[in-house]
Specification:
With about 325 residues, this protein is α/β, with parallel strands linked by helices. The protein folds into two domains: about 35 residues; about 290 residues, Rossmann fold. Helix content is about 50%, strand content about 15%. It has eleven helices and nine strands. The strands form three sheets. It has a five-stranded parallel β-sheet, sandwiched between helices. A two-stranded antiparallel sheet has the order 1-2. Strand 8, helix 9 and strand 9 form a beta-alpha-beta unit. Helix 1 crosses helix 6, helix 3 packs across helix 11 and helix 4 packs parallel to helix 8. The longest helix has about 35 residues. About 5% of the residues have low confidence.
Amino acid sequence: MHKKAIKEYAINILLLFMTCALLLVLCEGIARLSMNGPPKTDRNLLVVSDNPVLGFKMQPNFSGAVLGKEVKTNSHGFRDYEFIRERNDAYRVIIIGDSLTFGYGVYANQSYPKILERLLQKSGRYEVFNLGVPGYNTVQEAELLERSVDYAPDLVVMSFYYNDFDSTLQGHNTQPGIYEYIFNADVFLYSKSRLYQYLKFNLRNNLLIASLFQRASTTKHYENLIKTQSREYMDMRGAIGKIKDISRLSGIPVVWLMLPQITNAKPYPLVYVYGHVEDVLREEGFKIVNMDEVVQDRNMSGFRLDTMYDAHPNERYYELAAENLYREIMNISE
């Protein structure tokens, strides 16, 4: 009787597995027949870094597309023209951030660092280096700043977005082999499965869904990270301290740009999170540039990309970011 029960249990498990597999195949087929895929995105833009804190980096001299927009990186692995380390008489600004700084889903000249550069060059000799890397958080950005001081900037702009608390599988908390396995699995699934593309980019980033669940999920998650003094929060605080030390030792001033999330939820749900981070930055002596006008009484749908597969900002959002930074930099550099 015992052997019979084990056999029946094994058969049931096998049937369940086969049913799930058939359902996945069916859903994949429906996805391929009924949905257009997302705009072309080359998944080999990001490669594993030998720096355990960075975890990953952009591939140097890359040429491809992200969300259908051309992307080229220079020999340093950044989406910009070739950097010349030697100083000239131009006022040099480097901007460090994540996909919003990189310009995910827009052309390079539509990213806010390049819009800012054009604005500044109307007033004199300025150059702005875009060091944005999709997926980086504050810990990784602090590490990148430490490695970028030899560009000898006159000013550093660090950007903050609400999900900069999140761990991105950095080497200090994930074994490199495991990280590479997960990273490569994501690349493989994205390249092969229309269903995976849909689930990853539509359900996660859809503005309507994000708005409906904003207060109950995203907001509470990040508020709790702060209130519980979580490891993610303390890592971010440590990174801010590291950035302050780099600024002090190098003599290079640092300005923080606060980039708000695009959401139609009213009232704006991340007031506490952004307010707390701004308080921390002020306590550390940093200047802050925010974009309050973006979240005040506006339909924010007009600030996101015109695609169902991604909720990153569009050029209109980046123009506001550049204009706000421009005013602050003109005050500093004069």
